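Notes from the 1:1 (GR / supervisor)

We went over the backlog. Supervisor wanted to see one worked example end to end before approving the batch request, so GR pasted a single chain during the call. The sequence is below; no edits were made to it. Supervisor asked that the structure be written out right there so they could see what the output format looks like.
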Amino acid sequence: MYAVIGAGPMGLACARNLQKQGIPFTGFELHNDVGGLWDIDNPHSTMYDTAHLISSKRMTEFTEFPMKDSVAQYPSHHELKTYFRDFVDHFGLREHYEFNTRVINVEPDGDQWRVTTERDGQQQTRAFDGVMIANGTLHTPNRPELPGDFAGTVMHSADYRNPEVFRDKRVLVVGCGNSGADIAVDAVHHARSVDMSLRRGYYFLPKFLKGKPIDTIGGKLKLPRPIKQRMDALLIRMVMGKPSDYGLPDPDYRMYESHPVINSLVLHHLGHGDIRPRRSIDRIEGHTVHFSDGESGDYDLILMATGYLLDYPFIDRKHLNWPKNEDAPRLYLNMMHPDYDNLFLMGMIEATGLGWEGRNQQARLATLFIREQQKGSTAAGALRQKKKTHAGERLDGGYNYIKLARMAYYVNKDAYLDSLASHIADLEPGSKG
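Structure output shown during the call:
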């Protein structure tokens, strides 16, 4: 019996693949239903009212369970909540989950794992043959300390739900990832003023190009990495211009070496003066924020769009091969522990275009490995040895990813999927990967 922690997209992929392999499992979910952060009614969700996918539905969905044609190209969280509920009902996965259940502790016990859970104030400890941790990467906010005491309100994007919070306020958004860009656009329609503070440059991509979702365009012709980086950057510059055309810093790294911002409106509002670009924060005095270029502004609310930290509070870091001063565990394929053969950290992976199907293939490999270990196959033995000697190696496809905590578990989609497919074929001869 395996334990699956979480019922978001990654947890459901684990559950479905365990089901396919005939491996018994019990799932644990803190909320009362599936969907993870995509269920805005989940009190632990970091979702906001206007949130949509930043990848298109066909590039994101599970292959064996396509989204309906009536679903928008970039679905809202409401549509995705329905999608995941339909998914578990279609495949009969709901009955395997214990909802409203918090995982308190996970620790090894000989060849098994002891999992302690809590529900309605009652704790229970059970032994499992293995554990698949899939509680997500976007639930513990990164809250860097501000340089000074701000007299107004400070909030993180994780706490943001509705743009009414900006009504008549002078707003400073710190950071411009995809959530930061979305929220800044929301604020334009409610705030007295909206400024955006950036420490570094970003590549901005439109959601649509020639009427099609941008992530569905190209890819048929495989180009060498340096050529693809230059050509795609040139195309985006032709379509969108340079960030500096809008008063933003230009990126000092090449295309795809950090996650791009996929937003068709933030540059529009910058160009119209609805959002004012600012440099990094130097210091804060009361309501006044001083920036690194010597300018300053007065604000009522600072929203920190500063991302999230990996957090697995129910298991000791040493069991994840996670060195104290590093941003992410050292695992093979971002999921397999070098020593434990029955512990999998699922979904600790980001890659442009990977989608949920890419994560589904991750779960497929993990469950095939479990099955083949039970059989004692030579293929499982070979993978067991490889994960021991290659843990922590990064499938970056030659891309020089920038050194940020959120990029510590970033991989190149093609390199990652090729590696998954190769291992899947070894464990399941005749498989198409």
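Supervisor's comment: The longest helix spans residues 355-375.
Batch request approved.
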